[in-house]
Amino acid sequence: MRDLNVYIGESHILQGVSFGVRRGGITGLLGRNGVGKTTTLRGILGLVPRTGAVVLDGEETSKLPVHEVVRRGVAYVPEDRDVFSGLTVEENLTLAERAGSQHRYDLVYELFPELKQRAAQQAGTLSGGQQQMVALARALLNADNRILLVDEPTKGLAPLVVRHVVDALRRAAEVATILLVEQNLSVAHKLVHDVVVLDQGRVSFTGDVEQLMGDPALARKHLGLAAAGSH
Amino acid sequence: MTTIALLLITGLGLGALYFLIAAGLSLIWGLMRVLNFAHGAFFTVAAYAGWSAANAAGGAPVGVRWLIAVLVAVIVGAVFATLTEVLLIRPLYARHVGQVLVTVGLSLATISLVQGGFGSDPQTFALPSWMTATTNVIGANVPNTRLLVIAVAALVFALLLFFLRRTRFGLIVRAGVENRAMVQALGIDVQRAFTLVFAIGGAAAGLAGMLAATYYGTIDPGRGTSMLIFAFIVVIIGGLGSVTGSAVAAIVVGVIQQFLNYYATGIGDFSVVLLLAIVLLFRPGGFSGTTT
Amino acid sequence: MAIGVAVAIVVFAALPFAGITIPGIFDGPLNGPGTLNLLGLCFVFGALALTYDLVFGYVGLLSFGHALYFATGVYVTAIALARWHWSLPAALALTAVVSVLLPLALGAICLRMRDIPFAMVTLAFAQAGSILVMQNPFGLTGGEEGLALGGDTLPAALVGVVNTRNVYWMALVLLIVVYAIAWRAVNSPPGRVWQAIRENERRVNVLGLNPYLYKLGAFVLSAFLASATGVVYLLLQGGANPQVTTADFTLALLVMVVLGGVGTLWGAVLGGVLYEYLDFRLIALANTTGVKDLPALLRVPLSEPLFLLGVLFIVLVLFVPGGLGGALRRRFGAALGGSP
Questions:
Q1: What percentage of chain B's residues is helix, strand, coil (to nearest 5)?
Q2: B 150-189: CB under 8 A from C
Q3: Where would I find the beta strands (DSSP E) of A26-92?
Q4: pLDDT 10s digit of each residue in chain A, 231 long?
Q5: Is B94 near chain C, with CB under 8 Å?
Q6: For residues A22 and A2, is the Cβ–Cβ distance under 8 A?
Q7: Does the distance separating the beta carbons of B184 and A66 come in below 8 Å?
Q8: What is d(CA C200, CA B174) in angstroms, rounded to the nearest whole number?
Q9: What residue in B sits closest to C257 (Cα-Cα)?
Q10: What are the Cα distances from residue C255, in Å, to A32, B161, C43?
Q11: Would you state the pLDDT for residue A76?
């Protein structure tokens, strides 16, 4: 069952990226630095100009403006988190509320109780890990978000926080499909089922995560030396 | 001592006018990255519309006519601004320089039209007697118009803050000033916020135009452009995108200008320009620290 | 293309000897003082627009204060001649020095900022200059009334209606010289760096070049040339007028350059010439009986040249991004050749 099909044509960085994302799982989008993983996510949303087609559950979203794509149930958790520093935590969440959808504050506060405590705190004063929680919470808030595009959520975070994020993503996967970009391969290995690997702007491998990680030679070929030792 | 009090209050009055123009400019720049030269045109066209409306209501008492003038000016300002955004700014969405240029063209065209239709000489604006009377404040005899302008601007400031802090659109504007792309990535159509911000700016500019006519007792086609330059300076000193910054900067600029101009005409204007240069040298983002 | 330009230069140079009249385009014969004066002004504005295109079109610096340097040429020369009674060469020398030092000092400050802050500081400095002129410090500038050049301040060859042709030729020579200098500058190695800066300043940094110095160089060069056009303007007008110091004037420059096409030298010249011509003629048009009898609703807009120019400007920005120069190039590209 295909949830999201992505065929992104020429942009500066991507050259004919084409893959599908299975509904209800966590698919990993992997690859070395600079191969175009973030660009792919942004291309799906329409934040960068691209040619080609993006199909969501049978509907083509390629011609739609960004906010319309998002309204179809696509949530984005960017690499830099992009929380609004001048707004409070609560305001960041309120802003994310979409009309017509249920707002799962109970889920969000269950996963991230700290956010409830810090509701009135300015988001700019939060730590990196707390900002990541806000970013994830925003994506999970609307019940009709079918797919979450998550970009390197564990980047720069302490191991304890990383664990928290991993647990949160697992819970999130129960209610939505996730396309996860991750440089940290042990995290990726723990979370994802399918993988799509990019290399120099093209898809170089699709398949099961075990297929890739279980074979050190294959892992090294697609992901570089760092992959060979991880499990 | 009384001179100082008088200069201070007149300076605040001038600052109040600058704030009304600058607040809209600041939000438009902050949210849309558009340097809106047409703001002076909003000011002028709305002021003349209000003035004409007041004249058309010839029979009514002066106070009522004044009120009509202000109302018409605010509405015309808002409508003119909205039309500008929809017809001229929106089609140029990716071309920032083009957007600035088109506002320049609009400003040239409409202000010259006003000049052609009404003449370039200042004309009197009839004010109710209680406005032209003076009140004794700390020993100084201050014309009530100054106090009125300050009061109205303070009210608008409070309203703007309320709008920004307590409404959803205000939330969208505040977030959009920080990071437009992410607001869109939350499924929000920023375009509507653009139009709204332009409308608010236009309404405030129209109000400023009528209040300036009240302050000076006359209406004049060139005033919009000359006040606009100082309003730009206020916006930059106060920080692009910050309404509070504009308020503080407007007060500083207005008071300095008024004070120094008293001792030597033109020195005040000069000093404000100097102030801008100094501020920009040390803090390119203005006092609020928001980077362009 | 080059042949066409040479022919045009010869034609224009010979104009003062041509007694023909082209009704509708010009009032009076081609070699009459009225027409020559108008053409001279057109050349001056063409050259001025060209200097602005250097800084805005080629380097990408949106300066809102270019009028200041034009005004420098006008006022410094006027003051030296009319107030201090210097000889023309001495006055020109002073103007030349000021025209290098002033933009050097101001540019050094303004260029520390980019984009909009840069634009606003240049506007602010120009505004300060305008205020200064209006204040008539030490009675030098004549304030709002301007400063007229009396008959005894200039060499005889440049004074009087009879000698309009001499000033006309000066204007023509000015345009040619300014164009030549600009063309050389743009096609030189620094010129290419300018265009690189306009495209992507960071990349220029990466190449080990200091964009600040290049920008400053372009700024000073264009200001100096603008000042030169100011001097000829002064001679054509016979006096200095504070209108040239206003922000409106710089915005008019912007209109000229956009009208003609940003980033093409001859486009800017076209824009400047056309703008000045239209400004002049539209006022005359407004006074013709045909227009005077129109109902106010039509008459008023048609009588205001700035209205028509403003509307034209808006239309161009919306629909013809390359300006008239760009549009012409698209139609006649091959014939016009590839030169800027």
A1: 75, 5, 20
A2: none
A3: 26-30, 52-56, 59-60, 74-77
A4: 355 667 766 556 677 778 888 888 888 888 888 788 888 888 888 888 777 788 888 788 888 889 999 998 899 999 989 999 999 999 999 999 998 888 999 999 999 998 999 999 999 999 989 999 999 999 999 988 889 999 999 988 888 899 999 999 998 888 888 999 988 888 888 888 888 888 877 888 888 888 887 787 777 777 775 554 444
A5: no
A6: yes
A7: yes
A8: 30
A9: B101
A10: 50, 37, 16
A11: 94
- pLDDT tens, position by position, C170-227: 889 999 999 999 989 988 888 888 888 887 777 777 777 888 888 999 999 999 999 9
Chain B closest-CA separation from residue C165 CA (Å): 34
Q: Shortest Cα distance from B131 to chain C (angstroms)?
A: 31
pLDDT tens-place string over residues C130-148: 888 888 878 888 887 888 8
Q: Is there a contact between C74 and C236 (Cβ–Cβ < 8 Å)? A: no
In A, minimum Cα distance to B166 occurs at: A91
C304 vs B116, B233, B280: nearest CB: B116
Report, as an integer, the average pLDDT of C287-294. 67
Which residues 93-132 in chain B show a CB within 8 A of chain A?
none
Measure Cα distances from C37 to A94, C64, C164, C238 in Å.
67, 28, 7, 11
Contact, C149 vs C233, CB < 8 A? Answer: no
Q: CA A81, CA A66: separation in Å to the nearest integer? A: 18
Cβ distance B225 to C247 less than 8 Å, yes or no, reads yes
C261 contacts C267 by C-beta, under 8 angstroms: yes
CB contact under 8 A, B186 and A96: yes
CA distance B129 to B136: 16
CB atoms A95 and B189 under 8 Å: no
Whole-angstrom Cα distance, residue A192 to residue A169? 10
Touch criterion met for A and C (3+ Cβ pairs within 8 Å): no
Q: Choose from B180, B182, B189 for mutation: most chain A CBs within 10 A.
A: B182
Work out the number of other CB atoms within 10 angstroms of the CB of residue C125: 24
pLDDT (0 to 100) of residue C160: 72
B104/C307 touch (CB, cutoff 8 Å), yes or no:
no
DSSP lists the bridge partners of residue B140 as B137
Q: Is the pLDDT of residue B291 over 60?
A: no
Distance of residue B152 Cα from the nearest chain A Cα, in angstroms: 28
Helix boundaries (H) for chain A: 37-45, 66-71, 89-96, 105-111, 113-117, 128-141, 159-175, 185-191, 209-214, 216-223, 225-228
pLDDT category at C335 given cuts 50, 70, 90 is: low
Is residue A194 within 8 A of residue A28, CB to CB? The reply is yes
pLDDT for the residue numbered A1: 38
Q: For the CA atoms of chain C, what is the radius of gyration?
A: 20
List, in order, residues 6 or more apart from A181 with CB less than 8 Å away. A28, A29, A30, A37, A38, A40, A41, A79, A150, A151, A152
A39 Cβ contact list (under 8 Å, min separation 6): A11, A13, A14, A48
Q: For residue A99, which amino acid is it?
A: A
In DSSP terms, B91 is beta-bridged to none
